[in-house]
């Protein structure tokens, strides 16, 4: 609804000047990287935000790493455990110290990473380092605390379950992926969540595997210097010991035919999504940038299809689409919320026709130029606070481990050609790679 | 001297040439920013809707920003803006409507005529009307009940608090009233409540003086209709604890919101004293607040528990309080995120196969008991000092950049303040513990509250019986949690389970019958 758009808008803050611009790069601020002897990468981006700093730690572990049976949702659960204290900072003392910083501090987990962040007073940077270094190296919790925290995760699942779209998401990934760990959501299966209290020993193993320098990147953006950040990193994280564990994430076999899933629910408007298997993120291949540009041209609110289905025919309440950046091959999803369930087959056909047209005829060069400009200016207007810059860099750190991937990706956007778009439409947006998910009041989906 | 006299004459002429008063403008210039932000705040909101056409202000703003303008169709406007990545939108709350526009400096000259058209020449055509009203109707019919039980219980609490008054309805209206809205109503409403006489302008970023003057002059051309300010209804006083349970099928938990009228707002210095107490007991999304520690961290009951002394928009998404939703008619509230229901506990744990009721009654008792303890004992010196220090730092994050700062500045004017965030820091510094404890006793009580609980149909009757009969509600832990709980917690649980509540009425309402 509009209120959500408004809130998002207010979250986009205005740009402030940089003291040192990174010439020729999309992010106009230099990205300083320093790798400690133990392999921990420390990234600093000085930014003119007087008195304010964003301190992020990106742990490149998410639902993707949940390879063993019965532990889906564990990366997310472990994120909760990271707030349970250490010997030096037991829970109550940790909470008091966190409160004294006066920061906005939290964490979140996705399929490829767990992200811990504090945004607050730059003068408290050393305390931020001390607290984070302590829990990342010395986390300690009792079995009872572990079991207790599992209830909070169940509570989170309980609140999310109210949304039918979340319920469909579970079914969609389970259908689209048969082997890879992307077959479960970050929250995990409910039966595994209920069983989490019994996984105490596994949780110690989990910490030992992944909370190691080689899985983590420290990122500080704001009113700080590279020297200051590096010195604090050496002081507080220098003794952190490397680990040796490597996840063996199973490879998803090639899909050979269209798959279907359906949620019977008449409490919300009918819905359809078409999800195609597409490659993993890369900052050197043209495939994903071309798919991003295609999504904007064919499925955004300025597209012909949007005008036809949403504005002129008014069969869809909403239409949108795009690829999901991920470490392993994932999904490009086109989705539409409809007025009438009888239109589900029609809308699906129109989406497929739009894709087919691009695969055969390509796109208008003027639209391509327009979209490139949109991508460039959208990003430029967004990067105006330490939080937004840190969040943007964190996204690319999770994907490749290297924040410079951001600049490399945006350089690729400038080179996407009409031929690239035609090629990726024909190669990836095909029925053999497709999973269709629907919601309607009907017991079975209308398409199969 | 002659020059002075001529200047005076010019000023007099100018004064008479202007309308009765100039439109208020809030400026926040950032010469090195790469964009310009325009905002307009209309003093209207959903309270300006006619009773039988609730949702009209929302619909009018929606068609202004989601429809055609000037000679251009909506799709053509969006396409024209695409290379610039410019965008605009609107947000309607109960007492104000806000419009916002953002554009890179490189394209502000080309973009500005579009802004002017959206505000001064909205197209209001049948095609846009049909599309947007279907969406609005769909929201009030289905989406609000089906997408988030937490938001549902929050909106339903407001329905109880303001029942019979102009603050009662959802901003988007109700199933019945949205049907009554016609395109002619929207055209008339635009002329009536989106006027030069109830607007405040805001501009931030890298803009020229010439652009500012043009913006001010153009917005003088908004409808000149005389605007009579609508007074928001005040929250009703509950008679004891009045509970409404909304029964839905296939719901996983019980989502709880409870609240009561509050006489003060940001306009009052005493509000800052209460803010310190509220932060200690229930700061939004903070693990070190009391309710969170007692309900989530110690007892593993849900995802989080918070309290509020003013409207907090979109709490599930926002980590920090957003600008743009100021209100003069106020209440305080407690948000208990979904707790387990009996059906789920039975299915999950063998040892709980016989439970008849989930955790809602216990959680509600716990929350009110914590408030009663705070009212009785007040905050300690240490708690007070730590919370005050926290808030003085944390509140600086509310407006991290000029656009947010502009929003907070415009909100400040709503409350009769010049720069609320700046004043807040000074007020926090000088607030004393005695003032905080006095504000707690003066403004908080738990004997008279409205409560809404969205829960599963299977849970509703048992929960209703338990609440109205003040039945003992022992906490039903799974063995894995219970075995490690300390004696102190278990003893406290016994007190909570028997904690008397002044429940005077409990109603069960089917989801389809809410918001009527």
Structural write-up:
By secondary structure, chain A is α+β, with helices and mostly antiparallel strands. Chain A folds into 2 domains: 19-237, Cytochrome Bc1 Complex, Chain A, domain 1; 259-440, Cytochrome Bc1 Complex, Chain A, domain 1 (2-Layer Sandwich). Chain A is 44% helix and 17% strand. Chain A has helices at residues 2-11, 74-81, 91-101, 125-138, 143-161, 164-176, 190-195, 200-210, 226-237, 287-299, 304-312, 344-361, 365-382, 386-400, 405-413, 418-428, and strands at 32-35, 41-46, 52-59, 104-109, 114-121, 216-222, 259-264, 271-278, 316-323, 330-338, 434-440. A 6-stranded mixed β-sheet of chain A has the order 1-2-6-3-5-4, with helices on both faces. A 5-stranded mixed β-sheet of chain A has the order 7-11-8-10-9, with helices on both faces. In chain A, helix 4 (125-138) runs parallel beside helix 9, helix 10 crosses helix 16 (418-428) and helix 12 crosses helix 16. Chain A is globular, with a radius of gyration of 23 Å. Chain B is an alpha/beta fold and 516 residues long. Chain B folds into 2 domains: 24-219, Cytochrome Bc1 Complex, Chain A, domain 1 (2-Layer Sandwich); 241-513, Cytochrome Bc1 Complex, Chain A, domain 1. Chain B has 20 helices and 11 strands. Chain B is globular. Residues 1-18 of chain B have low confidence and may be disordered. Chains A and B meet through helix 1, helix 3, strand 5, helix 5 and helix 11 of A and helix 2, helix 3, strand 3, strand 4 and helix 5 of B.
Structure keywords:
A: 448 residues, alpha+beta, Cytochrome Bc1 Complex, Chain A, domain 1, 2 domains, 5-stranded mixed β-sheet, 16 helices, globular, B: 516 residues, alpha/beta, 6-stranded mixed β-sheet, disordered N terminus
Strand element count of chain A: 11
- Residue stretches of chain B low in confidence (pLDDT < 50, at least 5 long) are 1-18
Portion of residues in beta strands of chain A equals 15-25%
Q: Write down the overall mean pLDDT of chain B.
A: 94
CATH topology of the largest domain in chain B: Cytochrome Bc1 Complex, Chain A, domain 1
Largest sheet strand order of chain A:
1-2-6-3-5-4
Describe the global form of chain A. Answer: globular
State the end-to-end distance of chain A: 32 Å
At the fourth level of CATH, the homologous superfamily of the largest domain in chain A is: Metalloenzyme, LuxS/M16 peptidase-like
The percent range for helix content of chain A is 40-55%
In total, the number of strands of chain B is 11
